[in-house]
Amino acid sequence: MIKVFQNFSTYLLATVFISFFLAGCSNSYIEDVKRGGDYAYQPGFPELRIEIAGFITPEGQSKIKIAGTIPHNSLIFKQRDGELIADVSLLFEIRNTTVDQVRSSTFEIDVTKDLNTSVFSNDLYMFEREFDAQPGEYIVAVSATDKSSKKSTVRKAEAFIPNTNNNVTNITNIRLLSKHEDNSRGFFPVTTYDVSSAADSLRFEFQVTNSDPEKSINFQARLLKFNADTTVGLPMSFTNPSASSIEHKGIDYRDFEIIQSTQRQINRPGNVTVEFVFKNLDRGNYRFEVGTALPEKGPLYKARDFSIKSENYPSVKTPRELAAPLVYLMKDKDHEKMMAIQSDDSLKAAIDRFWLENIQNAALAKNVISLYYQRVEEANKLFSNFKEGWKTDRGMIYILFGPPLDTYQRLRTVRWSYKFNEEDPEYTYYFRSSKTKTDFYPFDHYVLQRNNMYFRIEYRIRELWLSGNIISRNI
After folding, report:
1. d(Cα 377, Cα 375) in Å, to the nearest integer?
2. What domains appear along the chain, each with residue ranges and CATH number?
3. Can you tell me whether residue 377 is helix, strand or coil?
4. Which of 67, 214, 319, 437 qualifies as a cystine partner to 347, CB 3.0-4.6 A?
């Protein structure tokens, strides 16, 4: 059955929901390997990212810990008492599915920032709350409502608190926390699959419960790095990469490097918190895994997948972050020459020169630049996977053409139409998933079905950007 979505954001959210549902039906992957949440970006709504964990205190008290972030640029700020303030309401609903009990709590918060700070700042409001809880399985829903817009965003996650009195050995889900060198707050939970390369340290936390005083627990912890595609989207008129290439496959979980492997033994009964810290990891896709029978996934196996991306991800701020996406508007040699510039000041000057030499109107250039990088950031939020969203084929088309007028998805194929005539081959683009999303391949990776007839429209859209006419004209 074909489902048509007139609203692009609604289509994307529905796609995410369907993918999550299908992944949740595939054996124990969701329980064993955590990836963090996606961005679930919807223009005009507050962005909410959460991380949920069940844990046991040294005193034996079981608790649910809820951490989250809300980007400032997704809220509406108003001036009050010499500050910019956004009024937000947070609602927590904690459901113990083991005994079917529900509790809820509401917090009214003021998100503040200095008047001199841009309303488009990508700073984050961070919150963390703890609640007493009994051992069991939990589903936690968090709702953030911007009281100025009256719009709400709801995110859900699962948590588990082991029972230390049932003589069963458990390893809890792994929490991933990051710390920036200039962040006085210290380590804070990572709520997404993506981790900023600005984080100088990552910490992994989990708990091991041993109720048998006569038994010791031996387990192994490994940090793996996977081979994945890092290339930008190829021109629309090129030939598609071969099915055997990493560009087509996206990421290969069979091809990995063991960054570190450690054996641990716990000899005493009770609950033990274990921590591992890694510093200055290179960009790429990783898995931190813990188990008693690695590399096999035995009954005691947990893992946390994550990806190190650019410094300000999903935003672009530094000269190098701003220069990289210009590959879609520049000739290859010119872009390579720009990216070879080492000095940030010189690179920023080259970027400004590129825009002004083409558009030749400072005011118009400012608007075009703002639109271009707004779409780059949105592409990162909408299509992020094993590589930056702007590098994906859907991200490339989204940046150049904007949201499609009409979209539908059937099986492993997605169609985007930019004209009301959905049969017009110049303005209708097909993307095909290289693999079905499963526990072994948890990504929506779609490859544009390229065609040399796209050369003319590709040239035309670049000219609209480089002349500044993209502001006033449609393709």
Report:
1. 5
2. 46-161 (2.60.40.10), 166-309 (2.60.40.10), 319-471 (no CATH)
3. helix
4. 319
